[in-house]
Amino acid sequence: MNTSNNNDSSSSNCNKNTSLSPNLATHSDASMSSGRATQDSGYLGGNIWNPSYMNQASQRSPQQQQHLQQQHNQQFCFVNPWNEEKVTNSQQNLVYPPQYDDLNSNESLDAYRRRKSSLVVPPTRAAAPNPFQYDSYPAYTSSNTNLAANASGQYPSAYQQQQQQQQQQQHAYQQGAIPPSQFGSRFVPSLYNRQEFQRRQSLAATNYSSNFSSINSGANQGTSPIPAISSYRRLSAYPPSTSPPLQPPFKQLRRDEVQGQKLSIPQMQPCSSKNDLQPVINVTPKFRRASLNSKTISPLVSVTKSLITTYSLCSPDFTYQTSKNPKRVLTKPSEGKCNNGFDNLNSDYILYVNDVLGVEQNRKYLVLDILGQGTFGQVVKCQNLLTKEILAVKVVKSRTEYLTQSITEAKILELLNQKIDPANKHHFLRMHDSFVHKNHLCLVFELLSNNLYELLKQNKFHGLSMQLIRTFTTQILDSLCVLKESKLIHCDLKPENILLCAPDKPELKIIDFGSSCEEARTVYTYIQSRFYRAPEIILGIPYSTSIDMWSLGCIVAELFLGIPIFPGASEYNQLTRIIDTLGYPPSWMIDMGKNSGKFMKKLTPEESVISTQKHRMKTIEEFSREYNIVEKSSKQYFKWKKLPDIIRNYRYPKSIQNSEELIDQEMHNRECLIHFLGGVLDLNPLERWTPQQAMLHPFITKQEFTGEWFPPGSSLPEPSGKQDNTKGQQTDRRNSTNSLNHDYVYNSNIGNGGADSVDISTSSKGNVNVLSNFPNNYAVSHSVQEGPTNEFNKLHIVEE
Ligand SMILES: Nc1ncnc2c1ncn2[C@@H]1O[C@H](COP(=O)(O)OP(=O)(O)OP(=O)(O)O)[C@@H](O)[C@H]1O
Q1: Cβ neighbours, 10 Å, residue 717
Q2: Domains of the chain, with CATH numbers?
Q3: Ligand 1 center from residue 374 Cα (angstroms)
Q4: Position 141 pLDDT exceeds 70
Q5: ipTM of the complex
């Protein structure tokens, strides 16, 4: 053998495999002819019939071929499928079939050989029933076999057929037919007419049965003249239309043969229940490796959960440390510019997932994710590694002004948590701890869920149900009652600062006391988020806890409408929207406000003739010209301008649109809400309801609402004025359809019941019944509210 030749070396390997037995060698083609073996190896080592090899072989000189053959004669025996009668090792590979009696005239030799060879393995198929039963098909058996129907017209059973075949075979031998033993290992049990055999012969079938190999060996020794019948039958023995699937999977069998395993062909057995199946369950399936705890793991687990171990097993040099993982940065911008590179430009600490906060002060808060970002800093979800508790940590900006204000927040929360509401009943955020990390004050809070803005967003900015609004409002009012009694002002009440305790419960808590102050120390004048900013703050007059009630009114309206009721784009725009919706504030507020002149103008004597109002808003042009800015006109979010109209005409929930009764109920509730909002969104802070008063309103208490309601302790002699105010018609007398005239005198020294400390003298000149404004057919103009989100559904279910 030419060992310097690649082909030869590969063939040498093949020889090792195929030298097991001549017969097995004949069928070891599947793997060997699958691409790796070259043309020569097909001959030298593969020991298979290979058309390309045959071509090559035919092109070689007889000397070359003889030489090659001699090299391998001692190692294997190739059985030429066509040299049926006198097969010898020396000639079998070199001789073409002596006759091609079924060769089509237009068929090439190669095509013929391909057609005739069962070594061109057909695709694997499902197992078939006993193939002998196919012989009973009349169309086939009548012409080609002796297995015809008996006299009664019935076809013999498989067993009867076998018996019949054996008898026929014996008879045929006696008549001079060539016994299959003379064909080497080849025979077809049911067919021993030579020509017929030659036409239908398949090498594939002849070596699959273990019984069969022993029979063959017996036959070769001449001890068994009558071959036993194999329970498997070659494919080509079936009529084309009824060819049964191959069984068992030949490729696998050949592979097993190559690996030297003794073939054991499963025998057919009757099977009546699943217990008869006796499945073989591998305790340790192939391709599994041991895990570190001595169990085996699947390939899937090894490349997913156990990837690190797998890598380690693949390469001893592989090392892995969690600390070297790239950390996900949570802060934007993430470039370290201040505080030794720890902070970004905005003095925000640059937070990464898996950072540990508070180590310098014996704390260990593992950063998990970002929860929110605000003016004062960032709020991150953390795990206290010492207690395993999941919490929220507010990492305050490192600038002094924020630090000072946050210290105030911490003090107020401490006061609320420990002194004012130790039992945790009044919906204030709980603070657990505080520490300093890299010059940042960190406040540790209980972990809460979504804020109300996020809830509305999830609800596609559609309003919440009345019941849910009531539940939320009651809780907020409860907090505001406590704050008022404690003379504390939150100063930044908005949906973002009201958080659900859990995503599936309508319980909430008030957060962010970073702007809070004592009523007696109202140092800052520029407070509250714009949409929720009270008119007295915009105008610049002294303020009290009533600014929180204004914010509450804006929040309640937003919960109903889904979007802010006063979404001002600027302070000017904010005031314009408020006035458009609710009318002008009382004159004393405008006169008193430090900022009034910025947004308003005193009416000229000519203008005063047609209006009882002393002031008017500057036009956009006037304001823009004066401040050299481009003030844009208000974008209208609602078709209607006045609060009662906006509320009344808001689309109905889908669930009630088909029920007249439910619509009536809804409209009644809306009137109640309008009345409630009228009291809370009173432009006059002195007349605005306190949380205690609002708590008693029918909207909260669910008492019957008759269209009129006066808060206890109210010093207003004419409550109808309140109702008219809700229509935005009280103070905007130019547009007024009814004439009301309240003159208020601010006296901060008088502290009586009612709203805030105020001495009020009123003269009411009109009265309109709210209920009389109900449209007759209000259902017609309402669009349908789309379905709520899942999150909202959850709340809804809890509520209803
Ligand atoms: N305890 C908490 N649990 C879950 N999320 C929280 C918690 N505290 C705050 N958040 C989230 O972080 C956001 C910002 O928090 P917070 O309002 O306290 O920060 P801020 O800097 O004071 O903001 P603002 O600009 O409103 O003053 C909140 O809107 C909320 O979504």
Answers
A1: 12
A2: 327-447 (3.30.200.20), 448-596+635-710 (1.10.510.10)
A3: 6
A4: no
A5: 0.98
